[in-house]
Amino acid sequence: MNLLRPALVITALLLAGCASTPSAAPSERDALALASRADASNFIVVAVANEPGQRPAFAGSTSRGYSGGDGYVVSDGARRTMHALAGRYHLQPVAAWPIPLLRLHCAVFALPAGATRAAVLQQLQSDGRVALAEPLQDYSVRSAQADPYVAVQSGNEHMDISGAHRISRGRGVRIALIDTGLASDHPDLRGRINVQRNFVDGDARRFQLDRHGTAIAGVIAANADNGVGIAGVAPEAQLLALKACWQLQEGRDEARCNSFTLAQALASAVDLKANIINLSLSGPPDPLLEALAERAMSEGIIIVGPNGDGPSFPGSLRNVLGVGRSEDPAADPDVLQAPGREVLTLAPGGRYDFSSGSSISTGEITGVTALLLARKAGLDARRVHTLLHDATDTVTTAAGPSRTVNACRALAELVGVNDCAK
Length: 422
Fold this sequence. Notes:
The protein is α/β, with parallel strands linked by helices. The chain has helices spanning about 5-15, 25-35, 75-90, 115-125, 155-160, 160-165, 205-210, 210-220, 260-270, 285-300, 360-375, 380-390, 405-415; strands at about 45-50, 90-100, 105-110, 130-135, 140, 175-180, 195-200, 240-245, 245, 255-260, 275-280, 280, 300-305, 320-325, 335-340, 345, 350-355, 390-395, 400-405. The strands form five sheets. A seven-stranded parallel sheet has the order 7-8-6-11-13-14-15, sandwiched between helices. It has a four-stranded antiparallel sheet with strand order 2-3-1-4, with helices on both faces. A four-stranded antiparallel sheet has the order 9-10-5-12. The longest helix has 18 residues, at about 360-375. The N and C termini lie far apart (about 60 Å).
């Protein structure tokens, strides 16, 4: 397969600077999707300063970088600079997108034939017109393969979620789930999905069939007391479903994202005024994603993600709530732990299945954080971490002793009650 073909299909559209209709034609969306999913080693991300005079549009309001009418926010100077850089370094434009939050205009470029990525990046990083130049990097979700099923939700039992629900159910808390798509039509998610946006492609059917996002959504916010299935940790929270990752194989949880799709989703989460961002994924440090995450946290948004092994995004960022599985030893005492082995959750098609991995644990900690925010809006990440860290118990499971956050005790400490069984 020619990896540059998607770039050739959409080059004229993305970087010509012409006004366009609000929605992309199917062939354009398909080309962008192919480019997003191609081998990341063939692509780089470049950003230049952008000082548009117009009102910013919502991030990801179209599948392309330039939208017509009021949403057209790329300055002439940024557009000219990007075009000049493409010509100077023989780069093939693939996709472009303004980031009003950072006053930057970003583009994904395919490398010229025969060029090494390191050499091209070195040249760009020394060019005074360039604000940022980095590899397009891959990120992977962290998986391993009196509602009727509540009795088998042992993870919720270990975290005393039933006790926590006497104090809070997460009502009104807005959680941005940056992941794959999810089955918003699942009976246990009815009324829970407030927003759906797709930064990968235009395939609405595929969005509904994605497994990983469905599993995490169920852990966080599956409806309680509806006579169906399971109960989520925060069953009255609102989910903002932002698809930035694509499922790699039918019927399996493994999924991948990249710098470009994640950047769009992070900016969208800020635009949508999320209270929490759940990132059940991990990958290398990334300056663009780190800048967006820092901006989100500066606006009071709490980010929850798996604790990484060594430098990683998002786990290495200061004030991100780093999470590990209860079943795994935590080398860092600051890591918050929650059950992550064979946790019953949702699957597409109105089904239920068991899922494992620190992705699941991350969703559980996100849910508990929502319970806290519903009782006291404006809590910052440090206070949440302290409450959860101090309410960590050692529990005995079939696999041996493990540590897990006790949601009820954390809430009891916050509101000053003593209403927990443990």
